[in-house]
Automatic annotation (TrEMBL), chains A, B:
Transmembrane segments: none annotated. Keywords: Kinase, Transferase. One of its GO terms (molecular function) is kinase activity. This is Pantothenate kinase 1. SUPFAM superfamilies: Actin-like ATPase domain (SSF53067). It comes from Solanum pennellii. The lineage of its organism: Eukaryota, Viridiplantae, Streptophyta, Embryophyta, Tracheophyta.
Length: 426, 426
C-alpha cells in the first residue's frame, strides 16, 4: 500500500488493512497526551456508526471537482504523560500508512514525520525518534488550539452547548458571527486566547490553577489515584462542610448589600481554619467537591474578566478538565453568569480535550499553491446512507473508554492533502 | 470620670486611669477579630514611642481654633474569631470610658454602643450583648474598609510601600491624585473595591481564594496550627518541587512565543499528578510555598484584571493575608507587574489588617451639623518633642506581639467627636 500526494490531492491505493493510520497528530501536554488519527480501516455500512470506507476518489458534495473525499474515521485517544510508554506501545502497534503493514515496526518508520504540539513535542522528541523513528513536526501550541477550535466550531454540529440549571442545550453556531471569541483551554494549566479569525489570535491570559491543580491537590488531600476517581468523589461531596460561606460569617444572613447570598462561598477551604480538625476528619468527597468548586469558579471568573476586557460575549471552553462533568460545567457557567450579570455565556466544546491535537492535525498541508487542510463535509441527508460522505460528529461516538483508559471518539473528514508530508516510501 | 459631647467637641475630665478606652471599634471577620481602640492612659515623653498624653484642649497645628486635640494612643489588637472568648475576656478587662473604672464589669456597660463591622457584627451581636452588655452599632463592611483605607492614605506617612526585588520602597501619596484606586482587601476571602472618593466606592470583584484558603488548605496539607507557622514554613520551601513549571513540560525550554519562562508555573501543584508520591513524601515547607504562591499570584492576577477594567493604575492591598511577608508581597507584585506589563503597581498598606476596624472607628460622628471624624494631625517637626501633637505612624510601632498574639500598633489622633454616641451615663 502506498499513499502519495498528486497535485495536492490524496491518492490512496486499494490495498488497505486493519488498523492502518493514514494521518496522525499528537498533543503532548504536562499531564496528558492526546492523539488524533485518521484511519481508513472501517468497513462501510449504512449507518453513521460504521461508515463505508471510500476507496476511490469521490466528488465532494458541493460539486467541487478539484477535491476528493477520503472517508474513514478520526479517532481520539489519550494517555497520561507519565505513562508515555503506553503511548509508544500503542503507536508501535499501529500500521502507519504509506509504508504498508510492515511499517508498524519501529525500524521501518524512521522517515515519518508526524504533526505534534504541546510542550512535550519538545521534551519527548528524542524519545519518539529513538523508540518509533518518528520525527515530531512541531506546531505551535496556541495555534493548534485555535485551529482545532475553529475547525470544530465551523464544521461540527452538536459540538457546542451551554450548561444551565443542570441542562445541556446545544448551540447552533452562526459562522458569520463567530469572531471574536474567547477560547479557554483548561489543561494542567489554563490558557485564554482571544480568537479573531483563522490564524488570528492572541493568548491574552491564563492561570496556573487548572486541571493539574485539581488532580495534584486532590491526590494529596484524598489519596485518590485518577482524575475521574476524584471527579466521582466530588459528585458525592458537600463543599459547605469545608468552605466558609457568607452565612457562616454573617450568622446565617445574606450579605445583600453587595449581592452575596448566605450560601455564597466567602473563603474556599475557610472552615478548615477554625475547627479543631485534621485532614482525616474530613470526608474525601467533601474535599474533592470544595476543590472542584474553587478551581472551576476561579477559572470562570478569570475567563469572564478577560472576556469583559475585550468585549467578548462568547466564551468557549475546552481542555480535559471539564470531562462533561455536570458540577464542573455548572460552576463555571454560574461563575461567568454571576460576574457578567448574565451578559456573557460559557459554552462547552464536546471534543474539549482534543483541540490542540485536532489543530495540529489540520496543519498537514497539501503541496498545491492553495493549501487545503482537512475539512469536515457537511452531512448530506439524502446521500447519507449511500455515499458515506458524512461528517458531523455523532453524539453517540464520544467517550468510549478503551483498554488504555483512553477516550475514543470519531468523526469523518474529507481529505485533500498529502499525508505525512516529506515522508519517503519505505 | 466622664466624657460628654459638647458642641461636637470632646471634653475630657482630668481623671484618667490606666487602661481606659475612650473609643473602640471592632471588625469581626470569618477568621479574625480586629479591634482598634483609643486610649488616653499613655504617659508623655519627648520621643515618639511614648507620647505625652494631652489632658486638655489643645490648638490643632493648623490654627483651627474650633477643634481640639485629644492625644493618646490608637491600639490595634487582633484575635482569632474561633477564640472569641479571648476577645470577650480582653474587652471585659478594659475600663470603658464614660463609666469610670467600675464600668469594666459587664453589668455596668450594658448601655454602651460600639462601632462594629464585618459579618461577625451580625453573628455575634447577641454574644456581645450577653457577655459584655455591649451593643454592636453596625457599620457596613465595604464602607468601613474604604473609610479606613482613605484615612491611612491621606493622613499617615510611611503607610504605603511597594515591594520590588526584595526591597520595600515607601511611596508618598499625593492626596490630590489619590482617586480612583483599587482597594484589595485580603481577609479570609478577598474583596476588590473601586474607590472614587470619601464614601464613593463600589465593590467590583472578589475571590473566595484568600487567606482562609491558605490557612485552611495549609492546615490540611501540613498539619501546621497557625497562619504565621505556615508562613514560616513557606519561607523555607521550594515550590518547584510540587508545581509543574513551563520547563517541566517543554523539556527545560522557555515557551518564549507567549512570554513564559521555563521557570514560570504552568500548573500549581501539577507535579503531584504524575509522580508516585503521597502527601507524606512532600516536605511541608514545599507545600506551603506552592500554596502561598498559588494564592498570591491568583489574587495579583484578578486584582490586575479589575484594575485594568476600570483603568486604575494604583492597587492598594490590605488585609491580614499579607502580614508583611516578603514572598507574599513579592509574588503579588510580580503578578501585577507581569500581567500589566509594568503598567500597574501593587502597593501595600502597613496597617493592612485593620482597614475595616479603622473605618468603623472613623464612623463615630459628633453631634454638630458638620460631622468631624477622627483625624490624624500631620506631624509638625518643630513641635514634635514638645507638644505630642504628632500623628504619623511610626515604623517602630508596628508588629508587637502581646500575650494574646495580637499585633499592637499605635498612632495619635485629634478628636472632635462624641464618644459612644447615644450612650448614657452609668
Amino acid at each position: 500500500m502506498e499513499v502519495k500526494g498528486i497535485d495536492g490531492k490524496l491518492e490512496k491505493s486499494d490495498s488497505t488493512s486493519a488498523d492502518e493510520i493514514s494521518h496522525l497528530s499528537i498533543d503532548i501536554g504536562g499531564s496528558l497526551i492526546k492523539i488524533v488519527y485518521f484511519s481508513t480501516n472501517s468497513k462501510c455500512s449504512t449507518n453513521d456508526e460504521a461508515p463505508t470506507l471510500s476507496k476511490e476518489r469521490q466528488e465532494v458534495p458541493n460539486g467541487d471537482l478539484n477535491h476528493h473525499i477520503l472517508s474513514g474515521r478520526l479517532y481520539f485517544v489519550k494517555f497520561e504523560t507519565s505513562k508515555i510508554e503506553d503511548c509508544i506501545k500503542f503507536l508501535s502497534s499501529k500500521k502507519l500508512q504509506k509504508c504498508g503493514a510492515q511499517c508498524h515496526h519501529s525500524h521501518a518508520v524512521d522517515k515519518i514525520k508526524i504533526k505534534a504540539t504541546g510542550g512535550g513535542a519538545f521534551k519527548f522528541a528524542d524519545l519518539f525518534k529513538e523508540k518509533l523513528g518518528l520525527t515530531l513536526d512541531k506546531v505551535e501550541e496556541m495555534e493548534s488550539l485555535v485551529t482545532g477550535a475553529n475547525f470544530l466550531l465551523k464544521a461540527a454540529n452538536h459540538e457546542v452547548y451551554t450548561y444551565i440549571g443542570g441542562q445541556k442545550e446545544y448551540v447552533q453556531i452562526d459562522q458569520n458571527d463567530l469572531y471574536p471569541y474567547l477560547l479557554v483551554n483548561i489543561g494542567s494549566g489554563v490558557s485564554m486566547i482571544k480568537v479573531d479569525g483563522d490564524g488570528k489570535f492572541q493568548r491574552v491570559s491564563g492561570t496556573s490553577v487548572g486541571g493539574g491543580t485539581f488532580l495534584g491537590l486532590g491526590k494529596l488531600l484524598t489519596k485518590c489515584q485518577s482524575f475521574d476517581e476524584l471527579l466521582e468523589l466530588s459528585h458525592q461531596g458537600n463543599n459547605r462542610v469545608i468552605d466558609m460561606l457568607v452565612g457562616d460569617i454573617y450568622g446565617g444572613l445574606d450579605y445583600s448589600k453587595i449581592g452575596l447570598a448566605s450560601t455564597a462561598i466567602a473563603s474556599s477551604f475557610g472552615k478548615a481554619i477554625s475547627e479543631n480538625k485534621e485532614l482525616e476528619d474530613y470526608k474525601p468527597e467533601d474535599i474533592a467537591r470544595s476543590l472542584l468548586r474553587m478551581i472551576s469558579n476561579n477559572i470562570g471568573q478569570i475567563a469572564y474578566l478577560n472576556a469583559l476586557r475585550f468585549g467578548l460575549k462568547r466564551i468557549f471552553l475546552g481542555g480535559f478538565f471539564i470531562r462533561d462533568h455536570a458540577y464542573t460545567m455548572d460552576t463555571i457557567s454560574v461563575a461567568v453568569d454571576f460576574w457578567s450579570k448574565g451578559e456573557a455565556k460559557a459554552m462547552f466544546l464536546r471534543h474539549e480535550g482534543f483541540l490542540g491535537a485536532l489543530g495540529a492535525f489540520m496543519n498537514y498541508k497539501d503541496g498545491s499553491t492553495d493549501p487545503m487542510p482537512p475539512q469536515l463535509v457537511e452531512q448530506q441527508p439524502a446521500k447519507r446512507s449511500s455515499s458515506c460522505i458524512v461528517d458531523r460528529i455523532h453524539n453517540s461516538t464520544r467517550v468510549q473508554e478503551n483498554e488504555n483508559g483512553a477516550t475514543d471518539c470519531r468523526l469523518r473528514v474529507s481529505s485533500s492533502f498529502k499525508i505525512y508530508d516529506e515522508v519517503k516510501r519505505c
